[in-house]
Specification:
Elements: H1 2-14, E1 17-21, E2 28-32, E3 35-37, E4 40-42, H2 48-54, E5 62-69, E6 72-79, E7 87-93, E8 95-102, E9 113-119, E10 125-128, E11 132-138, E12 142-149, E13 158-160, E14 180-181, H3 183-186
Amino acid sequence: MFYIIMLYNKLIKSLCMNFIETEISGVWIIEPKVFNDTRGYFMEVYKESDFVRNIGQVSFVQDNESCSTKGVLRGLHYQINPYSQAKLVRVIKGEVLDVAVDLRVGSPTFGKHIAVVLSGENKKQLYIPRGFAHGFQVLSDEAVFTYKVDNVYMPSAERSIRYDDPDINIEWQTLNEPFSVSEKDKQALFLKDTEINFTI
């Protein structure tokens, strides 16, 4: 009986998260299993053993959080090697369109992007490995965005790509409505002109 219970618990634990690899190798959507009852809900946000089994070993060193209002567009940001960052991102309140752009020279999907709606309601997470630019746009009145990184912020290594780069061609959802981009992001370079030192 003990072994049956152990097997059952192991099965339940394996069902706590669903790992889905996207069409760009290395980028994963993670869907947690949410347990609801009259009190509210419970879910596992991050479990190292499941993460390592499905994606591989990543040593996260810092958690970051931002709050933004509707139409705010942040990105596309990255850090060049040796300060590149992998990110595990999610939204705990509101909704955003989250985007990752492949900057790995030699990758069959170089310059291509993944766009995923993340929200406090769907509770999806996006894992973005090193070698990608990242950005998001707020679709709700307000969004609280949180993410893990495996390397610290290094200002000298920070780079940006224009959010409206025609070679990337991201279909942001609210550019026909009032939106907000920082002056720094407006001055970002296009993909063809920016510094990249990632390989696959």
